[in-house]
Specification:
Structural class: alpha/beta
CATH architecture of the largest domain: 3-Layer(bba) Sandwich
Strand order of the largest sheet: 6-7-5-12-13-14-11-15
Distance between the termini: 34 Å
Strand content: 15-25%
Length: 382
Amino acid sequence: MSKFANGKYAIVGAGLMGRMLAVALAKRGAQVDLFEKGSADAALSPARVAAAMLAPLAESAITEDSVVRMGMHSLPRWKSIIASLSSPVFFQQNGTLILWHRQDVSDAERFTAHLESNARNNQQLPTPQKLDSQSLKDIEPSIADRFHQGLYLPNEGQLDNRQLLDALLAELKLLEVNCYWNTPVEPEILRSQRHHDWVIDCRGLGAKTAWQADDASHNPLRGVRGEVVRLYAPEVNLQRPTRLIHPRYPIYIAPKENHVYVVGATEIESEDLSEVSVRSAMELLSAIYTVHSGFAEARILEMATQCRPTLKDNLPEIKFSKQPDQSGLMLINGLYRHGFMISPAVMDCAIELLEDGHSNTAIDLGLRINKDLTLRETSLCV
């Protein structure tokens, strides 16, 4: 019998990580109470405003090796997670295409050299493939008239973030998870009531106080603003996520089902959740038009912003504490821009910690685990 059978768990925050953990624990026989300050549609979650690309080699250009390893671990896990759900979720693993314009050749050369070095140093990563005019035409014929070279990153993937959130919601209902929507709660209050074996804080930016540093003027948990455009573009037929090397930030185009494209993403050190700026909209839309002229007749379905929960070093972390006379407390945060890419790995580590008090997977992947929640930290989990 699973160690989780008949155990009682409270999860606060029903974004991507909260839903995934609730489903995973319930499938292991646990009784799960899920609390969310927003509605069931995850409208307040950064996971709803995302492209959900699973691209560890592409991201290796800007992140640490531990995140890359978590991404490689998560790719096959996504296949099994999606296969286990009762509702279908679009999943694709056709690799990533990197493009650039003539004026950005020097940036592209540096980017390529960086990825080649990373692939040599990490045997799990595929080797990037340089494309000439003919090979580019073979894999993505619709843009071959505008570009004559590119870079192909094999095995990388993507999924439909909104389909996944809906599928996880349906699974919560099937598993009879007790979901409390529009119900803001404080994890420390749940913990003090001692009705659960563990209280798990998955609130993202809502957990700022819990991650407050010793210096109250400095908080290691911050929001990084991203802006995303969703388009309906029936005249465009891209086969895989495509990234355009850009002077200010990498621009991606992620094709979903039924001619829907997710375009992003700016990265701004701000927690401003106001509407997309004119500057960002013009940059994103003009950039994708240079990739494919069919975007000129696309219809704008949505322009959205969200802030990704980010720790001071842009790396994820799990903190936890378990005392004999009270409920255990676990804090999961800091997935930054890599939420979909690494969430299965973070979830697997959390499950191991809940089950055994340690995680070999976390050691192998380099996920930071902090077992020493101080009294100050646990008392401030609001």
